[in-house]
Every structure is written in structure tokens, then in C-alpha cells.
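Structure first, sequence second, as always.
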């Protein structure tokens, strides 16, 4: 039997992001001083260092920026979850997000393909993870 999967540990700064995912909503920060969305959650806006960050909902539509196919487990918790498809997607609103591709065969993955969010609830932990699949499925 594989070890249990590690789960994220929200911080006071990132808690709204995780609460949003639990409600199947994607909340990320927006900085009026820089006029752009930012991710990862932080206390000051990058570039301006303004404390004007606001949590806003996005639809999560994105393009696949990069990925890899993991055919060997990265650790014991992933021994039964092969192949793995770790990826980075570029949200339409700007920032990039590290994730995992689901519901797709490795041979069908293409850089630049449109992807759509998938909310993966982990009942034992109460956490929800954000994964992505091809937009045409």
C-alpha cells in the first residue's frame, strides 16, 4: 500500500485561495497599483510593494505552458499514480500556476493546448486541489 499523499498546509496569507478551491472557485490576488493579477499569494504587490492586493475570482481558463511525463514515482505516495503529468499552465489573466494534468493520455498533451480547471476534492483531508484537463474533453 502506498503512503498517503501529502496535502498542502494553508498559511494565513494563502487561506483565501484554499477556501475558494473548497467552494470550487478560483480566487487569486489582483493588484490595482500594478494593474495585474498575481500568484502565489503574498502580502505585498510585486513590483510596487503596495499593500493593495485584493482577492478576485477568475474562471481558470488557461493554456499549457510546459509539462513533463513522470514514468517513475517522485516518491512513495505516488507509486500507484503513474504516469504523472506535472505541468505549468498560464492563466488567461496572466500568472502561471503549477498543477497536474488529468483525464488525458501523455501522447495527447501538447504545449499551447487549451486547458480547463478540475477541482479534486480530497475527502479525508477536507482539501481541494486544482488540476487541469484538455479544454475539449
Amino acid at each position: 500500500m502506498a503512503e498517503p499523499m501529502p496535502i498542502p498546509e494553508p498559511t494565513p496569507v494563502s487561506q483565501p485561495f484554499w477556501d475558494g478551491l473548497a467552494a470550487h472557485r478560483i480566487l487569486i490576488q489582483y493588484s490595482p497599483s500594478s494593474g495585474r493579477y498575481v500568484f502565489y499569494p503574498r502580502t505585498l504587490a510585486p513590483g510596487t510593494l503596495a499593500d493593495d492586493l485584493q482577492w478576485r475570482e477568475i474562471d481558470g481558463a488557461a493554456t499549457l505552458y510546459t509539462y513533463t511525463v513522470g514514468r517513475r514515482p517522485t516518491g512513495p505516495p505516488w507509486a500507484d499514480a503513474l504516469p504523472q503529468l506535472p505541468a505549468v499552465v498560464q492563466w488567461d489573466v496572466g500568472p502561471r500556476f503549477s498543477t497536474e494534468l488529468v483525464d488525458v493520455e501523455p501522447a495527447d498533451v501538447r504545449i499551447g493546448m487549451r486547458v480547463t480547471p478540475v477541482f479534486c476534492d480530497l475527502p479525508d483531508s477536507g482539501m481541494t486541489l486544482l488540476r487541469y484537463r484538455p479544454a475539449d474533453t
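Margin note: The chain is about 5% helix and 35% strand.
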